[in-house]
Write the structure tokens for this entry.
Amino acid sequence: MQIANSAPALLRALDTRRSVPAKQLGAPGPDDATLLRILQSAVRVPDHGKRVPFRFLRIAGDARAALGEVLVERLRDRDPDAGDGALDKERGRFLHAPLVIVVVAVLDPDDDKAPDHERLLTAGCVCFALLQALQAFGFGGHWLTGWPTYDGKVRKRLGLSKPERIAGFIHVGTPRLAAPERTRPAAASLLRDWTA
């Protein structure tokens, strides 16, 4: 069976996945054809009821700076005393990597076949699969959230509808350095047997 023969390679891909800090991602990012190929792999996730509870927003070029200005404006609303350092941090939040993909979770409170919780989990799986696909093509990725993820006015400026949420901002680019390994939990220490 072909999948069994390729299992070690598939496991190596999972075992060597690394997040590359957004500040260490530079140009180039994937071209349009490569990005679409990467996204095609990312959408192969569990999806109860085939609802496709996710979509993508691409933020590239000048749109990255424009989104930074949206964050500056929003931070000033939230904290009128925010200093220049805090404002500069928001202004540059999306300027490091050449591309940011926003994974949007499409929730539907009127659909009882797939609860919101399951839809959000599916969108989270898309984020992870996207990171794996990026690495397979030699790119680095960093899944970030932060306060803009949860801010209703930021979501509105991004064009999200009321029942949509941001599952993550995936920063994409070419790694400027090898991503360091970090300590991972031992699976055996996490496994317990349930008995009645």
Observations:
- Residues 22 and 142 are 6 Å apart (CA to CA).
- The radius of gyration is 19 Å.
- Helices lie at 2-15, 32-42, 62-78, 84-91, 116-136, 147-150, 152-157, 187-190.
- DSSP finds eight helices and five strands in the chain.
